[in-house]
Amino acid sequence: MKDMILRGGIRYEYFDPAASMPANPEDPNLLMSEERSYYDIKTTKASIKHQISPRLGLAFPITDQGAIHFSYGHFFQIPPFAYLYANPELEVEPGYLETLMGNPDLEPQQTVIYEIGLQQQLSENIGIDITGFYKDINNLLSSGLSSGLNYYELPGGTFYSRYANEDYANVRGVTITLTKRRSGYISWAVDYSYLVAKGNASSPTTAFYDLRDGKEPTKKVVPLNWDQAHTLNGNLTISVPGNWAFSVIGRLESGLPFTPSPERLRGIGMGQERPEVNSSRKPAQYLFDITARKEFSWKDLSYAVFLKIYNLFDRANERYIFDDTGRAGYSIIAQRLPDNSYENPGIYPIDTYYNRPYFYREPREIRFGISIELR
pTM to 2 decimals? Predict the structure, then answer.
């Protein structure tokens, strides 16, 4: 239109789970035994799901070098089939919460996304984009215990649960991207993201295992496992097309959250019996990769020599950590346990058990190669 650009759309989705579920979740025939049979259970068909997802985008040019943009959309996702069809024989083990049953009647998980931003040309070759976003996530998959629903009792003191759409999350943040398109020999880009992700739980099974272990399921929003507050990415390329190129990519990421152990809290003077979920942070991580390439030609052949170095500075980035120290390299428990390996030659020292190289991301890797093409 004269003063704006409008993009709109509608997505229709249809899903038939084609599966049955117990008509009565407390049917005694669900209890596992030698006499029970799947055909003794009265079942009902899971319902067919229909979804209509509207999408809308608007852009308002404010000058010949800048525009404000806005978007709004609904997005649906069927839960992974493992959660719909787990335990197809509908068997419940005797005991207290020994079974977490699938649920083919799960609703799609829904995300509503809002975005607003500014695109602006700063010079002939440099532009900036600032975008703020908010995601409202409903019908997230849970193990059906956070509100007491889908928690069933069978004869003999047997309790079980099944998956349900009970959890909620929201994500909000801002992304700033500064880009220089290629001029002369150089092009580069830098982008920074600030993000806050909170919800009831990071995993569908969290509430189930909390209650089975005698813990009260979380009933408030907490930082999710992927709540990475700060992310900074940059890349620089210096090149002569068809001749040579050199590039550097750098990534800096703030630490992801984790739930500290009581030992860690006591060590820093906080004697809480049950730590707050995801109330501590892992160490920050950074990586730099470089790529160099030189091209040649000879008769009908074109070939190139390249060098790639990943994790240039051989940074020991900690992917997993011990929850009593917040670090990958050592644990308080290992320091407190006695080392009896000298008395038992067949037993490794306790430090060996807590030495876990896979807790770290990949070390430096160097690749050199040659590619040949027939022109």
Answer: 0.82
